[in-house]
Structures are given as C-alpha cells and as structure tokens.
Amino acid sequence: MASTSMSMAAAPVARTSRNLKSSKFHGAKVSAVKRVAAVKVNTEVVAAGKPLPEGRKLRVVVVGGGPAGSCAAETLAQGGCETFLIERKMDNCKPCGGAIPLCMVGEFDLPEEIIDRKVTKMKMISPSNRAVDVGQTLNDKEYIGMCRREVMDDFLRKRAVSVGTTMINGLFMKLDDPGQGNGPITISYNDYEGSKVGVAKTMEVDVIIGADGANSRVAKNIGAGEYDYAIAFQERIKIPDEKMEYYKDLAEMYVGDDVSPDFYGWVFPKYDHVAVGTGTVVNKTAIKTYQAAMRKRAEEKCAGGKIIRVEAHPIPEHPRPRRVQGRVTLVGDAAGYVTKCSGEGIYFAAKSGRMAAEAVVEYSQNGTVEVDESDLRQYLDKWDRKYWATYKVLDILQKVFYRSNPAREAFVEMCADEYVQKMTFDSYLYKTVVPGNPLDDIKLLVNTVASLTRANALRSAGKAQVSM
C-alpha cells in the first residue's frame, strides 16, 4: 500500500492584505467589488504564435464562477490577458461538504474570514457504529478548513474582478466552433445584468476555459464525452447551541450500506449550522433513502435541529475522455477532477483552473500572441503527471474498502492506527506525496491484509448464514 509523508516543516500562513469589511453573507467579511460591464473589442484573431495587433490582448472567456473559474480568471487577468468571467448564479449555494486542505489557504491566499470552522478532530464511524477518533497526529497549527461555498465563491469572484476580470452575470448557451482554425470563437450567452429573462448576446474570443461544473455545456459543445457521476445530497441543519458546541472543531464521517452503498455520509460543521449529507453512484434513485438513514445515524447529536436548506448536485467520478479541443479546455468538475474515496474537489478545481490559465499566459507571452491546442495540452500533460497517481490510488481504495460492510469495518479499524492517520492527513493537508518509513509501510501492509482477510471471512460467513 502506497504511503505519503509531510514535506513541509510548518503549516502555510494565510496572508490577508485586503479590506474585508462587508458582505451580504452572514458571518463572513468579504469586501464588495463593483461588477465591470463588458465592452466592445477588436475581434481580429491571427495565427497561433503570431503577435496580436498592437494594443490588442489575447481575449479569454471563462465559463463558470466557482473556484475553478474564478482562479483561472484571476490568473489570466494578472497575466495580461483580456478576461471575461460568465456566471449565472452569483449567490449559488452548491451542495458541497466545503472542506479545504490547509495548503490551499496559503497557496491561494485565502483570508481566515471565509473559513467557518477549523476542524482538528474527526470521527470515523463504522456500520456497527464503532467510532474511531482521528486527528491525534495534527499539530496546533494544522486543521481542515470548513467553508460555505456561497461565501468562498463570492470572495474568489470579487478578487478576480479586482485584478481586471470583466464579470458577466450570464448563462453560456453554445459556441459555434472550438477554435481549431485561426478565426475567432463565437459564443452565445444570455445576459442577465438588469434583466430577469436574459438578453441573447454573442462574443468573439480567442480561448475558452470551461469551468461550468458537472453538467458543463462547454463540455457538451466540444464533444468531451460522458462520465459516470455521483449524486450528492445534503441538508443544512441548524442545531441547538449546546449541540453545535460538540461540532465546533469536529467532523464526522459515517460508512455503511445504510448511508451509501459506495461512498460515505458526513456531518461537517459550518458557521452556525451543520451540513449532513451523503452520496452514491450505483443507486442514485435511492439517495433520499440514504439521506434519511444518515439523519438517523446522527439524530442524537443533531436532536432539536431544523433543516434550513436542502441541496443536491451531480459529482463527476472520473476525468472526461476529452478535456481539450482546439482552443477550448475544461477544468474543475467540468473536466471530472473529483477524487474517489474522499470526494474531494474544491482544491483540485482551483488548482486546475490556475494551471490552465498559467499555460495560456505562458504560451501567449502574457497575452501578446495567439495560442493553439498544443499550448493548452501543456496544461493537461502537467496535470496528469502531477495527479494521475493520486486519482488512481483513491479509486483503488474506494473499490477495496467501500464494497461491503465488513470491508468498511476493516477500513475504520485501520483508521485507528497512528501511522495511517499521519500518512492520510499529511497527504490531504499538503498534497505532497513522498515515501514513508519502510518499516512502518511493511507493518501497514500486514495490518491491511489482516483487516481485509477478516472482512472477507465475515462477508463469507454472512453469505453462508443467508444461504442456510
């Protein structure tokens, strides 16, 4: 079993250099930034690698204003490209656990004001309700950040606008050609700025970055191919203060075929409530049944709670077959960058958006020359080299440990091991993979085999009793 280890001596420090005094979102201090209206621009597009006309910058539209799109737009605007960001729902509350790794706070310069809770303890709860405390290996500066997506996304969009991105409250409809030739790419969208019904408009651009989520229209327009997806269902529950005190720095993860046949259920603390949810790929139609079971498992700790919001959303299970065509590329959920086993997507969304934008900035020489498909593929090659192994390992772990209740019991049993906790948290918090201690790796391998052997024996015994 592969292992990981921490390569950083201390946790990254979040730097807050902006005024964060006002926000429409309760509990978060995020400064308001005036939205900039779209302007008419010169649409002359020249061959890839050739200089653009004097005074004309490479024009890029980013579709989708979540972490992937906002981080892409910010990087593009800072890098000299003329950047447009299209987002329909400015106050979107995506059903998302909202957990972010510590490295993201420093790497993306996130202010602490957008972090609702700093989780330093976790409970892994097995099908038989055996609870294992996880987090003993964390130091006093390490934590998992818990955010509300409406607060985080709003902050990231406003930051992109503050460095020169033009924000468009609109809905992307289609593109006429993915830019496989040298001409401009014409996109059609509905502009909702000042209009409840939307005004049909078009725009000519040089490059498109699709960051419009699991149901990406950009992906459909370039024939990116289908992928299997999970349905995530989440309820935000306002619980009494004394119950909230229990969850102030604690998150819970539940496994069992009652809460999900192939994933896990969760209770994650937010600003003044908890998010209780689950997900599944193999039995999507039963998602409300699994959610009811999840509420049942956590009912004592959430007693007296009131559901204040119900959310559901698809989550991709693997990267799309095609992520680049012509001068159009995909990032985040649109590309399928959600890890199996853990279901993590926020960090990888923001990272992929930034990496795609960095490739555009680099190969356009800060927005002064045209780019083509080969330039965008540099981002894909770099991404796959960096993260392919991570996705593969988590895929294997999900198939091994989420396949039956005995296997889930074995999984929770393993989580009690201090070395397992250290390797897991180091990998999650810092996204750094280095060899672990060989002797401990051997011990972990033996324990893993032993746990799985017991799980298989229990599974076989259960089947034998049923057949009798």
Furnish the topology, listing elements before pairings.
Layout (H helix, E strand, L loop, with lengths): L58 E5 L3 H12 L3 E6 L11 E2 L1 H6 L9 E3 L1 E5 L5 E4 L9 E3 L2 H14 L3 E10 L9 E7 L7 E7 L1 E4 L6 H5 L7 E10 L2 H6 L3 E5 L10 E5 L4 E7 L6 H11 L8 E11 L7 E2 L2 E3 L1 H4 L10 H18 L9 H29 L3 H11 L2 H13 L7 H30 L1
Parallel strand pairs: 1-2, 1-11, 2-8, 5-13, 11-18
Antiparallel strand pairs: 3-7, 4-7, 5-6, 8-9, 9-10, 12-15, 12-16, 13-14, 14-15, 17-18
- How much is the average pLDDT? 86
Strand content: 15-25%
Strand order of the largest sheet: 10-9-8-2-1-11-18-17
Gyration radius (Cα, Å) is 23 Å
Uncertain regions spanning at least 5 consecutive residues: 1-47
Order of helices and strands: EHEEHEEEEHEEEEHEHEEEHEEEHHHHHH
Helix content: 25-40%
Structural class: alpha/beta
Euclidean distance between termini CA atoms: 36 Å
Count of individual beta strands? 18
Shape: globular
Major β-sheet annotation: 8 strands, mixed
What does this structure look like?
The protein is an alpha/beta fold and 468 residues long. The chain has helices at 67-78, 102-107, 149-162, 217-221, 241-246, 287-297, 332-335, 346-363, 373-401, 405-415, 418-430, 438-467, and strands at 59-63, 82-87, 99-100, 117-119, 121-125, 131-134, 144-146, 166-175, 185-191, 199-205, 207-210, 229-238, 250-254, 265-269, 274-280, 306-316, 324-325, 328-330. The protein contains 12 helices and 18 strands. Helix 1 runs parallel beside helix 3 (149-162), helix 8 packs antiparallel against helix 9 and helix 10 runs antiparallel to helix 12. The protein is globular and about 70 Å long. The two termini are 36 Å apart. 46% of the residues are buried.
